Amino acid sequence: MSEKLQKVLARAGHGSRREIESIIEAGRVSVDGKIAKLGDRVEITPGLKIRIDGHLISVRESAEQICRVLAYYKPEGELCTRNDPEGRPTVFDRLPKLRGARWIAVGRLDVNTCGLL
């Protein structure tokens, strides 16, 4: 089954779908040697070669993904975002790093609020 390229790369931990869309639009992604276009779909096969900036990317089918669940108590002062242009701390700064995957926050709390995510 084919999937949108940006979804495959986001699932592999190379950024959010929106970030990946920007990378694709900039011409930095190739699939089997051809520059990818936004909206391209790919079929995950053993011979598939996806590159970002010339670096070969490892991708897996969604059924092969390991699902990790983590309960996190967000203290006051942390943001529920991946990165902040003002340099404030985020919940993702304190989570363990994952290789080839990324954490997704379920729930969202204001910066001045504490609670479970």
From TrEMBL:
SUPFAM superfamilies cross-referenced by the UniProt entry: Alpha-L RNA-binding motif
InterPro entries membership: RsuA_PseudoU_synthase, S4_RNA-bd, S4_RNA-bd_sf, TruA/RsuA/RluB/E/F_N
Keyword Disulfide bond listed: no
Keyword Transport: no
Superkingdom assignment: Bacteria
Domain annotation RNA-binding S4: ranges: 3-74
PROSITE patterns: S4
Subunit structure, as described in the record: Monomer.
UniProt record similarity statement: Belongs to the pseudouridine synthase RsuA family.
Protein's UniProt name: RNA-binding S4 domain-containing protein
Origin species: Escherichia coli
